[in-house]
Specification:
With 441 residues, this protein is mainly alpha-helical. Helices cover 64% and strands 3% of the residues.
């Protein structure tokens, strides 16, 4: 383990890394249920998508750990799976096979621009102050997702968002989990987030079983399942004809590239900040390998039948102060957990939104601490940072928040006569973001 992951160098140990990996898995486990539900609306086999989700998440996470030694786990991304189903298949009219072919092509393009270091240049061109804003913004975004999934925050016709029903048993369970996890954290208990998840799940099962409360985590009636569906493996090959004939394929591929690229960039920056993987120049350590692992994950996922596989922001639940994961052993542990779910999927009935919400909220609190390092007395950084954060939350999109933050940053620099200090790559991104909002949104 020491030779593979350099644990002592990163100030960690095997126990900490395994706990971090399990915590990350628990925070990500919802994708095993959500991804098949979303892609199923594109008329794809539910069981086939589940198998592809579990295997691609497991293999890509292990590859990230072994190749890049990053505590970043991967799975089919939220947001991009909605893009796949509702836009590419639903609005553009591609078949599921054609959409998978577009994902495959976007992954190949990612591999090419990663190997040629273009992707690294773009990420390292992000100004240091924007990196802080991106990390903090993702913290708020993650917390909002957790609150929304648990029903603590709900949609409202009059005010857009509002408090949910605080008398609902599942909402109360999530609130209990947040409180107990926060108590453990402020007491500096090791693996506070992980133990918070376990305690919340156990309490939910007990109250569900004894008092018959609906929506509570349930003990599985069946533990092992060997019901495999490989119908989607290789399905992308049948969609290549559509890439050559369908006029919307170029837009579909670019949209997949855009969303994955900047979701990944934001996630890597956030996780690297928490795991002390940013050097004295403000650049991510060994980022080329992390980006290549992410790109290969997308290619592999498309080949076995799922939408874009990307670095998951929930990786932050197992990194840094919360649990302490700092090396690839964390992501390898998460990957193994995902592979095991191929056989033990019924057990995941215990992992509900109410159970994972506390981890996401607490992680959001920890990540938001990066706000203190933003130079708020500099209006360029204050404006661009604020826009980045607020639109990640209100626009429910990490990538759109980053894009708008870049646009405000460049405009502010021009307005203050500092255009010559703008990185060339930032200029390119600025123009691409303008084109994206003008023609693709």
């Amino acid at each position: 383990m020491e030779k593979l992951f350099h644990l002592k160098e990163h100030g960690t140990n095997v126990k900490t890394e395994i706990l971090a990996g399990i915590t990350t898995f628990l925070a990500m486990a919802y994708i095993l249920a959500v991804n098949p539900a979303i892609l199923g609306q594109a008329h794809m086999s539910h069981q086939g998508v589940f198998l592809a989700t579990a295997i691609s998440a497991g293999a890509a996470s292990i590859f990230m750990g072994l190749m890049a030694n990053y505590p970043v786990s991967l799975a089919p991304g939220m947001g991009v799976n909605a893009l796949f189903t509702y836009t590419i298949v639903g609005q553009m009219g591609l078949s599921p096979e054609g959409a998978l072919a577009c994902v495959f092509v976007s992954g190949i393009i990612f591999v090419i621009i990663t190997v040629t270091n273009i992707r690294r240049m773009i990420i390292n061109a992000i100004p240091a102050q924007l990196k802080l804003a991106i990390g903090a913004g993702i913290g708020f975004f993650v917390a909002f997702v957790g609150l929304k999934n648990a029903g603590i925050v709900v949609a409202s016709e009059s005010t857009f968002v509002a408090l949910g029903n605080l008398k609902d048993p599942t909402v109360l369970l999530a609130l209990f989990g947040i409180i107990i996890t926060l108590v453990l954290l402020v007491k500096n208990k090791p693996a506070a987030v992980f133990y918070g998840l376990i305690i919340t799940a156990v309490v939910g099962v007990v109250f569900g079983s004894i008092f018959g409360l609906k929506g509570m985590p349930q003990l599985p009636t069946k533990v092992v399942s060997v019901n495999f569906d490989f119908s989607l493996v290789g399905a992308f090959v049948r969609g290549f004809n559509e890439i050559l004939t369908h006029p919307q394929c170029i837009i579909a591929i670019f949209s997949l590239l855009f969303v994955d690229f900047f979701d990944t960039a934001g996630t890597l920056v956030a996780v690297a900040s928490k795991a002390d993987l940013i050097d004295e120049n403000g650049e991510l350590v060994n980022v080329e390998r992390a980006l290549l692992a992410d790109a290969v994950g997308t290619v592999f996922g498309s080949m076995i039948g799922t939408s874009t596989v990307t670095s998951f922001v929930e990786s932050t639940s197992g990194v840094g102060v919360g649990v302490g994961g700092r090396t690839g052993l964390t992501s390898c542990t998460t990957g193994i957990c995902f592979l095991l779910t191929v056989f033990f999927y019924p057990v995941l009935s215990m992992i509900t939104d109410a159970v994972t919400a506390p981890a996401l909220v607490i992680v959001g609190i920890l990540m938001a601490s990066q706000l203190k390092d933003i130079k708020w007395d500099n209006l360029i950084f204050a404006a661009s940072g604020f826009v980045t954060i607020i639109f990640m939350i209100l626009g429910y999109s990490i990538s759109n928040g980053i894009a708008l933050g870049f646009i405000v940053y460049v405009i502010s620099m021009i307005a203050t006569g500092q255009a010559k200090d703008i990185n060339k790559m930032v200029w390119v991104l600025f123009l691409l973001f303008i084109a994206y909002f003008a023609f693709l949104i």
